[in-house]
Design brief:
Blueprint: H1 2-8, E1 13-17, H2 26-35, H3 37-41, E2 45-48, H4 60-64, E3 69-74, E4 77-82, H5 101-112, E5 119-124, H6 136-143, H7 155-162, E6 168-171, E7 178-181, E8 190-193, H8 197-200, E9 202-209, E10 212-213, E11 218-221, E12 234-239
Parallel strand pairs: 1-2, 4-5, 5-6, 6-8, 9-12
Antiparallel strand pairs: 1-12, 3-4, 7-8, 9-10, 9-11
This protein binds fe (ii) ion.
Fe (ii) ion binds near residues 51, 125 and 258.
């Protein structure tokens, strides 16, 4: 249903911020590929891996070809993909992410290479800033000193490097959608957490033109998503066309933290 909703809404680009699979199985990823085949074949989807994708068969390499930082350029859109997963994610109870200084610099360089008229978006699974605990489990493990639900250790460094060069940082991992305005520079940096689409049954839709966002994103409800199809945090971006009244579609979030 998600795929159909995206096709019906004629979105230009869809980004998925990790946890494509629940158990990291190749069969799960192949199912995703089957379901989203029309959009994948049209090269409309951009993905980064999440901690769940490192479980089981470890399909992170299928998601992002093994690179920690990569760029996808689309008309009017500059997407910087960041793999924030690590070997700790082989364990279900160690879902936290990790990035290092080299990755921070590579992300900064990738953002600086964007065309002037492109919206600059960073995609990453784990959250860069502290977020409130969402469950009793998170509350408990936090007090035990375990990093299970912690933000990225260099998350703030990443944001400081991106300020002035990045318009949107989209992440997943946590279940409750959130919005943070990190900077008010000439090029404000906005952070959005997709939230859990399986719980929310909706996604965000961003509109952009000439390298800038057009207002705030809107929520799009997606009903009747089969549970096995709805694990991933999804967003969609649409370019404004001169002949089309401002319609944007951004699917927001189907995530499962772990
Ligand atoms: Fe996650």
């Amino acid at each position: 249903m998600t795929c159909h909703a995206l096709l019906e809404n004629n979105v230009d680009d869809i980004v998925i911020t990790g946890d494509i699979t629940h158990r990291g199985r190749v069969s799960e990823y192949q199912k995703f590929q089957q379901i989203f085949a029309p959009l994948l074949e049209a090269k409309k989807i951009c993905i980064v891996p999440g901690n769940h994708d490192r479980l089981g068969d470890d399909v992170a390499g299928m998601v992002m070809s093994g690179a920690r930082v990569a760029v996808q350029s689309r008309p009017g859109l500059h997407l910087v993909q960041v793999d924030s997963t690590g070997p700790q994610n082989y364990s279900f109870v160690a879902g936290h992410g990790e990035i290092d200084e080299e990755i921070v610099e590579r992300v900064g360089d990738a953002l600086e290479s964007a065309p002037r008229d492109a919206l600059r978006v960073t995609l990453i699974h784990h959250h860069p800033l502290p977020l409130p605990e969402e469950t009793l489990v998170e509350w408990f493990v936090h007090r035990m000193g375990w990093p299970y639900a912690e933000q990225l250790g260099l998350g703030r460094r990443l944001l400081e490097r991106a300020v002035g060069e990045c318009d949107l940082l989209l992440h997943g991992h946590r279940h409750i959608p959130r919005e943070i305005r990190f900077s008010d520079s000439e090029r404000p940096l906005l952070i959005y957490n997709a939230g859990s689409s399986t719980e929310l049954m909706r996604f965000r839709l961003f509109r952009h033109a000439e390298g800038r966002l057009l207002g705030s994103p809107s929520w799009v409800d997606v009903r009747r998503i089969p549970a096995e199809h709805a694990l991933e945090p999804v967003w969609a971006l649409a370019r404004r066309r001169p002949t089309v009244p401002a319609a944007i579609r951004a699917p927001a979030a189907l995530d499962e933290v772990g």
